[in-house]
Amino acid sequence: MSRPLYVASPILPKLDDLRPYLEGIWDRRMLTNGGPLHDELEEALSRHLGIPTAMLFNNGTIALMTALRMFDLPSGGEVITTPLTFAATAHAISWNGLAPVFADVSPDDLTLDPASVEAAITPKTSAILAVHVYGTVCDLDALQDIATRHGLPLIYDAAHAFGTTVSGRPIGTFGDASVFSFHATKLFHTFEGGLLATNREEDRQTIYYLRNFGIKNEEEVVGIGINGKMNELQAMIGLLNLPQVEDERQTRAKLRQNYKSFLSDLPGIRLQPDQPGVSNSEQYFALQIDPEKFGRTRDDVYEALKSMDIFARKYFHPICTDFEPYRGYPIHSVWPQPAVDLVKTRVLCLPFHGGVEEQDIAQIRAVFLS
Ligand SMILES: Cc1ncc(COP(=O)(O)O)c(C=O)c1O
């Protein structure tokens, strides 16, 4: 039994395996600015994720900010996004001098609802930033259709969808750009890190400049870039973690089946839907608790688990519009009351990683069945 049991627990390389990498870094004294480990990881991830233009960043937030920056959107332009996400999604919009506009989520799968996106479009709309929340894939066709009809760049926050494929097609090849996070809580991580992927090969140079202060050469700065560079220690962790990812993913896939075996038929419990043709990234195990049908609230279950040192998370409650910077922002919805208002009181993510043991599952099961 592992206690405290957190919602996430990182895979880690063996300490002995670090030594040769560290010796190489020490010998070369090239610590950042596109060192050999950085380049090796970038290539390995480009292959692993099936995306030719895949560029590493020091974290997912800077990668998201850069993704938005790539499109040279007009200052004050509106970017439609979901309120059911980590704060970084909305902040990346705001840090670019753009205005986040929140649209509702689909009550079926909790991703950005296309009809509500359409309802949020104004003459100032300049992009759509959708999130594959909990690893659930957005309605790709409907969002692309809206983006194409309105001439809007479509960017995906794929922080939860590492390695996901849809009918064999890599998730990072949809839309105009996708961003992955390699934060310690993610299936694949580099302690901190991120990646910006795009099909737009022609933008590689632009991303390269944006990631490195806009520096073109020793004497030229050609744009207002940022410091988005991943360093050699992060890249080392990535190279050592990447071969472990598939094992961890499979362990989590078994855990998902285990959770489902006692949760699927419980009245008042709703799981994220299985998506045909989608290979799940196994980032999160999210569920919703309907208090009327289940007999207890989400918060009751959360507290009962917590009393046993099991720390489930109410991701993503509070939602972005509950946070001070976005309080009072409307949530555009095709329903009289936004679906997300109810969802946020019901969502819970269970511990989901290779460190969850049979005894832990038994205790979690007992909380739900009691
Ligand atoms: C949906 C989402 N977007 C963006 C981020 C930000 O990524 P990072 O922590 O790598 O900056 C995260 C999590 O960390 C996330 O969950």
Write a concise keyword list for the protein shown above.
binds pyridoxal-5'-phosphate; three-stranded antiparallel beta sheet; Aspartate Aminotransferase, domain 2; 2 domains; 17% strand; Aspartate Aminotransferase, domain 1
Characterize the structure shown.
The protein is an alpha/beta fold. The chain has two domains: 15-243, Type I PLP-dependent aspartate aminotransferase-like (Major domain) (Aspartate Aminotransferase, domain 2, 3-Layer(aba) Sandwich); 244-369, Aspartate Aminotransferase, domain 1. The protein is 36% helix and 17% strand. The protein has 13 helices and 18 strands. It has helices at residues 15-28, 36-49, 60-69, 87-95, 114-120, 140-150, 204-211, 232-241, 245-263, 291-294, 298-306, 339-343, 358-369, and strands at residues 5-6, 53-57, 78-81, 99-103, 125-131, 154-157, 165-166, 169-170, 177-181, 194-198, 215-217, 220-221, 269-271, 278-279, 285-289, 310-311, 331-332, 347-350. The strands form five sheets. An eight-stranded mixed β-sheet has the order 2-10-9-6-5-3-4-17, with helices on both faces. A three-stranded antiparallel β-sheet has the order 8-7-14, with no helix packed on it. Helix 1 (15-28) packs antiparallel against helix 8 and helix 2 packs parallel to helix 8. The protein is globular, with a radius of gyration of 21 Å. The two termini are 20 Å apart. The mean pLDDT is 97. The structure holds pyridoxal-5'-phosphate. Pyridoxal-5'-phosphate (PLP) binds next to helix 3 and helix 4. Pyridoxal-5'-phosphate binds next to helix 3 and helix 4.
